[in-house]
Amino acid sequence: METWWKEQAVYQIYPMSFCDSNGDGMGDIPGIISKLPYLKSLGVGILWLSPVYRSPGEDNGYDISDYCDIDPKFGTLSDMDELIQKARELGLRIVMDLVINHTSSAHAWFQKSRRREAPYEDFYIWRDGKGKRPPNNWTSFFGGGAWAFDEVRGQYYLHLFAKGQPDLNYRNPAVIEAVERVMDFWLARGVSGFRCDVINLLWKDSLKNGFPKGALVGSEYYIGRPGCHALLQRFRREVLSRYDCFTVGETVLVSPKKARALTDPDRGELDMVFSFEHMDADCFLVKWLPRKFKAQRLFRSLVKWQKALPWNAVYFENHDQGRSVSRFGDGSPAAAKAMLTLLLTLRGTPFVYQGEELGMTNFDFAGMEDIRDVESKNMVPTLKKLGLNDKQIFARMKRASRDNARTPMQWTAGPQAGFTEGTPWIKVNGNHVTLNAQAEEGDPDSVLNWFRTLMAYRNGSEILKQGRFRLISREKSWIKIERRLGNERVTVAVNWSSKEAKLPLVGRPVLSTHGTRVLDCRLQPWEAVILEEPPQNGSEK
Ligand code: ISL
């Protein structure tokens, strides 16, 4: 069989919201350690941790002030070593988030750079302004301009994200070497790879004015440039190839062609990427511009990407996206089960986000005061400029704010959902009284137990792990796919709607979200079924 990262499913932990061990309202590493038996019981093999490095927390840890230390709110370096060790004892691997497009402005490199201290003068992208205006017209991912003026240095610096996230200058070899030392530090400590944050933005071709009409002005000069490919090849050659590890790139606005290049084993860049296209099934390119969800749109994109690449990452959720069951379904446990079935039977490495295995839903925000996310807050002026009033802006937040995914993990029906004994940094979703891991443990029909059943089936199926993908049929609200290995095949049919669906079904139903079933070519609302077919041509394998 191929490498372990093609066989196993990945579970993403958002440490701030996973489990708090010390009552400060913030999830931490000892909390994660305490949940290792739960994580093991899910059947996943790899745990990806969103950033736990030292950080002022302007962007919840994606603004790093020390790459080689753990933030005290999450614990210590020795807690991290213990997590890696204890996970390994259970056969679980740890993957870290690698955020190297930018650091925090609190990072010592930036502090020295702004004071022009050697050798850090050119660690960041500094430029003089044009009169009173910034060096160019680029805009930030989080709304507003992409430049900030630094009084100490008397120059502007580029920040594609928040003001506190200055972009590193990859034209400086010392930056490349420093970042390589960071990778080496963690790989040598026993982590098994990296999820590489906005990794296709590292190289800025030029700092010319961008085409002014785009949503992200300037992006033509920094998304997926040849210089970025060269950097990735170098990281692979110099560091990653020395370890048994994998990388998954978060690649903003990536096309199938670009993704193929980025993941081509002969080029030696990344092992897989997160594509974003299927996240547009309910919006126009950016989540702040909503449109009605259409299952067809989701299916079309998923199938296109299944066909486009020999292997890739597959996901429906992460810490930047609303909950899939609320966006793409009706919020019901049945819809959650149906979605998980498709997720775990597509070809590729599946990524599941904490709480997705419970069918957690979008947050029941009461007002803007419940929102913590810097992106959401920064977007308000931009949305106002588009002519939206406060009520409309809040409606968009409820739908698209990243905080939808960031509410605490719902462990129990008790106070704060069992996440903390203190006051959580962000409110707990009110539906935890019924929707929680403890309640689902005891319910054989729960989303959680369906997830476990699916994972066990997937882990035991070479066809699902390795088989080729083929679309059999996709209709307005159902999809039927096939996975084939040699002359054996598995068919998966998913009814993506709250109405019954009639469709041809062939084979032996081995698993259905609706319990044991006889084959009658009808799927109940949100029913998903896995069918095994006898080997073709009468030949046994
Ligand atoms: O969240 C987004 C869309 O709603 C994206 O624009 C997101 O900001 C982009 O995909 C980059 O995300 C990553 O880098 C950011 C960080 O805030 C995100 O949490 C991270 O996943 C900056 O480090």
Question: How would you summarize this macromolecular structure in one to three sentences?
Answer:
The protein is of the alpha/beta class and 541 residues long. The chain contains 16 helices and 22 strands. The site of 6-O-alpha-D-glucopyranosyl-D-fructose has 14 residues, from loops.
How would you describe this protein?
- The protein has 16 helices and 22 strands.
- It has 541 residues and is an alpha/beta fold.
- The strands form six sheets. It has an eight-stranded parallel sheet with strand order 11-10-9-5-2-1-15-14.
- β9, α7 and β10 form a beta-alpha-beta unit.
- The mean pLDDT is 96.
- The protein binds 6-O-alpha-D-glucopyranosyl-D-fructose (ISL).
What small molecules are bound in this structure?
Answer: 6-O-alpha-D-glucopyranosyl-D-fructose
Number of domains: 2
What is the CATH architecture descriptor of the largest domain? Alpha-Beta Barrel
CATH C-level class of the largest domain: Alpha Beta
Total helix count?
16
What gap, in angstroms, lies between the N and C termini?
A: 17 Å
Pick out its properties.
single chain; 541 residues; alpha/beta; TIM Barrel; Immunoglobulin-like; 8-stranded parallel sheet; 5-stranded antiparallel sheet; 16 helices; 22 strands; 18% strand; globular; binds 6-O-alpha-D-glucopyranosyl-D-fructose
Q: How is this fold's topology laid out?
A:
Layout: H1 4-7, E1 10-13, H2 29-34, H3 36-42, E2 46-49, E3 53-54, E4 66-70, H4 77-89, E5 93-98, H5 108-114, E6 126-127, E7 147-150, E8 155-158, H6 173-188, E9 193-196, H7 226-238, E10 246-250, H8 256-263, E11 272-274, E12 283-284, E13 286-290, H9 295-308, E14 313-315, H10 324-327, H11 333-345, E15 349-353, H12 374-385, H13 390-400, H14 437-441, H15 447-459, H16 462-466, E16 468-474, E17 478-485, E18 488-495, E19 501-502, E20 508-512, E21 522-523, E22 528-533
Parallel strand pairs: 1-2, 1-15, 2-5, 5-9, 9-10, 10-11, 14-15
Antiparallel strand pairs: 3-4, 6-8, 7-8, 12-13, 16-17, 17-18, 18-22, 19-21, 20-22
Helix pairs in contact: 11-15
